[in-house]
Structure formats: C-alpha cells, structure tokens
Amino acid sequence: MAKKKITKLNGRVAKNAFEVKTYDHLKEFIPRNMKVVYEEEDIPYTIASVYRPDFRVSLRKGDKVVAYIEAKGNGRAFDGNVRRKMISVKEQHPDKKFYLVFYSDGKIGPKRKDGSFMRQSDWAKRYGFEFCIGWENIPKEWFESYDL
Prior knowledge:
Layout: E1 8-9, E2 12-13, H1 17-29, E3 55-58, E4 65-72, H2 80-92, E5 98-102, E6 107-108, E7 118-119, H3 120-126, E8 130-133
Parallel strand pairs: 4-5, 5-8
Antiparallel strand pairs: 1-2, 3-4, 6-7
C-alpha cells in the first residue's frame, strides 16, 4: 500500500486535497499586495444554548436550590458534546453546585497511546465535578451543609 502524501501549508498539515487546492487557487487569485495563510489564527466563540439539568434539589422551605444533578449512562449518553456542555455550564455558573451520577464508569474518548481509555470518573476529576457511580451511591454529604 502506498503511503499517503502529507501536504503542508505554512508548516501545518492540510486536512484534505480540497483545502490544498483552495489554498493554491487563493495564492494565484488574490491581488499581489495580499497574502493567504493556512490555519494561523484562533478565533474564540461561544454558542448560546440552554441547559436543563436532570434533577434540581432544593430546600422545601423557600425553594432555595441546593444542587443540580445530572444522571448519565456511558457511551453515547456522555459524548464530547455533553462533556463540553457540562464544562461550559459549570464555568459560566460558578455559584451553582453540579453533581454527576454515572450509571457505570464507562470508557470515553479515543484510545490513548498506551492502549487505555479515559473513564468517566477520570474526566469528572479532571474538570472538578463531584460524582458517584450508581444512583444507590449518591453521597448524603452532597446535601448536608445547607442552612435549614
């Protein structure tokens, strides 16, 4: 089998032949007093959305919210989009408590170089989420430090 030729544009590996052809065309097409560079700039953006947590726990008197609980299975239920959403919600609402209840400690993401996978618990620890595995293991401590 022949090796696939790697094309570099401005020192970065092009994703596909279409990008290479577009780059080459732009170089020929744009006026001489302009230049074109490939994937040189990162432009941050946010996507506005709404998060509806699985459960809201609040005090009976006054309805003060104590915590939000997200129950997640493994596999597609905890994909990259869900993980990004949870990180964004937590970062944008630091005054709120978010807890994760995992059905099991499933594998997520691509296989690592050593052949292992990140687990849901690894991800939760990495991003500072308190979590438990299994609904029967929800810690009472999550709800004990609130003024009644």
